[in-house]
Amino acid sequence: MAKSWLVTMREAGLRKDFGGADSNESRTNQKTKDKLHTKYWNENGRDCYEIYAKGLNIDNSQIRDYWQWTTSTRDGVEVAEAVKVKWLGVNGSFKTINLTYEVEYKVSFLLRTKSPTPSTSTSVGNMKQQKVNLTLTLPNGTNQENQLWLPETSEQWQEREAGHFKMTTEVVGEMKFAMWQQFDSWMGGLIIKGVLIKPR
């Protein structure tokens, strides 16, 4: 019965509404934004999503002194690179109705690091292997927290898991995820591609 109810909800059109950082946009603009900022694919009958960096809330990302946006030559999508930050704050949301019933999912940030862009006025430390906090809050109020090290390499995108859950009727709604850290000095070199939601 629960599975049939979930399928009915999807067929009603809710599947297309991925959710995202800005809930004040019109429905039409939201759908356009979702297509630009979210990638979907099916893996052995299971729904998978990637929310690109532009679909996330990144604190101060509009200030060029702190963050710069570039298009990845590897993937053809816009990524966010920390130029110099003392506060790292990234968060987003996603509507779980779009996921496959009874599948165990994980939610991970896709990251890599590089040497910070040289600055003539400020000494900037390297964010490689710095510890950050990650959280996943499910619609039923369950909250998961992790402390993990940022990647050391710039060669491959690496996953840093915020949390995991099994898709059931108990977790239908909007889940939220975040990554944050307060640094003692200016830090740079972190590159954010997005958030990956896929079977565990």
Keywords:
200 residues; mainly beta; Jelly Rolls; disordered N terminus
Give a written overview of the molecule.
InterPro entries: PP2-like, PP2-like/Lectin. With 200 residues, this protein is mainly beta. It has one domain: Galactose-binding domain-like (Jelly Rolls), CATH 2.60.120.260. It contains 2 helices and 13 strands, in the order ααβββββββββββββ. Strands 1, 2, 4, 5, 7, 11 and 13 form a 7-stranded antiparallel beta sheet that branches. Strands 3, 6, 8, 9, 10 and 12 form a 6-stranded mixed beta sheet that branches. A hairpin with a 5-residue loop joins β9 (131-137) and β10 (143-149). The protein starts with a helix and ends with a strand. Residues 1-5 and 20-32 have low confidence and may be disordered.
The named CATH superfamily:
Galactose-binding domain-like
Number of strands: 13
Task: State the separation between the terminal residues, measured CA to CA.
Answer: 25 Å
Helix and strand run: HHEEEEEEEEEEEEE
The biggest sheet, with number of strands, parallel, antiparallel or mixed sense and barrel status, is: 7 strands, antiparallel
InterPro entries: PP2-like, PP2-like/Lectin
In short:
The protein is mainly beta and 200 residues long. Helix content is 10%, strand content 48%.
Summarize the SSE layout with pairings.
Layout: H1 2-11, H2 27-37, E1 38-43, E2 46-52, E3 57-58, E4 67-71, E5 78-82, E6 85-95, E7 104-113, E8 125-126, E9 131-137, E10 143-149, E11 158-166, E12 174-188, E13 190-199
InterPro entries: PP2-like, PP2-like/Lectin
Pfam families: PP2
